[in-house]
Structure formats: C-alpha cells, structure tokens
Amino acid sequence: MEQQAPEIIFTVLLGGTLIIWMGILLFSKASLRKELQAITLELSTMIAMGATLGSLYFSEIRNFVPCEYCWYQRIAMYPLALILLIATIRRDKNIIPYALTLSLAGFGISAYHYQLQLFPDQSSSCGLDASCTYRWIEVFGFVTIPLLALTSFAFISMILIVTPRPWKTTQI
C-alpha cells in the first residue's frame, strides 16, 4: 500500500482544520466565535465539496473500488454537498435541519464502516467485488477512507450545530 501525496494532504488538511476549529470554539473569545458563525455555511460547503471530490478522486483517478458502505457514505455526502452549496449561494440557513440529518446519517455509516476495518473478523454484509474491511489507504497507521469520511461528517455536523438558526429568536 504505497502512500501518495494526496492521501497525506487530505488527512493533514482535514485533521488540522478540525483541530483548529475545535480550539477556536473551545478557547477563543466570543467575538471570534461570532465571526466564524457568520461563515459556517461556507465552511461546511467546502468540507462537503472536498469530501465529494476526494471520493471521486479515489474511485475515478486512483481506481479504488468503492465497497457497499462507501456507497452509503456517498449517498449521504453527495446530496449534502449540493444542498449546502445551494444554501450558501442563497444564504439560506433554513436548510440546516436537512443537512444535519444527512450529515449525522453519514457519520453513523462511516463510524460503522471504520470499526469494520478495525475489527475485520466480524461478519458484515459486504459484497464480493469490494471488501468493506480492505484499507485502500492507511495514512499514519490509522487514517483510512472511512475515517476521512467520518471526520468530514463530524466536522460538518459540528459546524451546522453551532450555526445560529434564523427561526430561533432570543427573548429578552
């Protein structure tokens, strides 16, 4: 399993961004958090588009055969990228419940898929043409494609959860 630069770049970008975002949310001043909340749709769109392009890169350029759970993750991510892009263009935060539903569903599928790779001796409903336990990539000894998807879904979910809702008004 020869490591390629794109796998390492995907891993470092996603992991670094997640660590920075969590640090900002946990340790920054309220003014910085408020400024970041203004661009949450843009951030979540970039992550979803990056994950979509990454999955297409792995299957169409690197010729990795997606397994059954990879397809389920794509079923959650591809429409998520599209609806977040449309919501970003329209500045429509009313999309958040729908996007969050897709993101959390993808998170659950990715978590299950990743644990299948960690514990491959358990039975699964994988097909014969592509094993759900095979690790097409393994960066730093533990980062696989399902973990990249899991991290993307987690990051998108976290961003959408902290996004101010236009339908919620504060009462004084």
In words, what does this structure look like?
- The protein has a single domain (7-162), classed as Bromodomain-like, CATH 1.20.1550.
- Helices cover 68% and strands 0% of the residues.
- The protein is built from 6 helices and no strands.
- The radius of gyration is 17 Å and the shape is globular.
- The mean pLDDT is 82.
The secondary structure category is: mainly alpha
CATH class bucket: Mainly Alpha
**CATH fold annotation:** Bromodomain-like
Major pleated sheet: none
CA gyration radius, whole angstroms: 17 Å
Can you tell me the CATH architecture? Up-down Bundle
**Model regions low in confidence, pLDDT < 50 over at least 5 residues:** none
N-end to C-end Cα span: 59 Å
Query: How many strands?
Result: 0
Pattern of helices and strands: HHHHHH
Strand content: under 5%
Total helical segments:
6
- Coarse shape: globular
* Average pLDDT rating: 82
How many structural domains can be distinguished in the coordinates?
Answer: 1
Helix content: 55-70%
At a glance:
The protein has 172 residues and is mainly alpha-helical. The protein has a single domain (7-162), classed as Bromodomain-like.
